[in-house]
C-alpha cells in the first residue's frame, strides 16, 4: 500500500505530508542500501507498508522531523522479529 494511500485516509497538512513522504523515501532507500534481505522483492511490500504505518503513527508526536521519523522507522523494522 503506497504511503499516499494511507495519508489519503487522514486530514494532514501539506508540510506534514511532505515530511512524512521524505521520511518514508529516505528510510526505504536506506534499508535497500544496507540490508538486502529486507529489500527482497518478496518482502518489499510488507516492509514498505510497515515503514509507512510507523512513520505516520509517529509523525504526530512532538518535535518530529523527517530525520527522526526515518531513524525511528528503520529501528522499528530492524528490531522487529517479524522482519528477519
List keywords for this structure.
single chain; 84 residues; mainly alpha; 4 helices; globular
- What portion of the residues fall into strands of 2 or more residues? under 5%
Q: What is the N-to-C order of secondary-structure elements (H for helix, E for strand)?
A: HHHH
How far is it from the N-terminal to the C-terminal residue, by CA?
21 Å
Number of domain modules: 1
Helix run count: 4
Structural class: mainly alpha
| Unreliable sequence segments | none
Q: What general outline do the C-alpha atoms trace? A: globular
Helix content: 55-70%
Mean pLDDT: 85
Query: Compute the gyration radius: what is it?
Result: 12 Å
- How many strand units? 0
Task: Summarize the biggest pleated sheet.
Answer: none
Oligomer: single chain
Tell me what you see in this structure.
The protein has 4 helices and no strands. With about 80 residues, it is mostly helical. The protein has one domain. The longest helix has 21 residues, at about 15-35. The radius of gyration is 12 Å and the shape is globular. About 25% of the residues are buried.
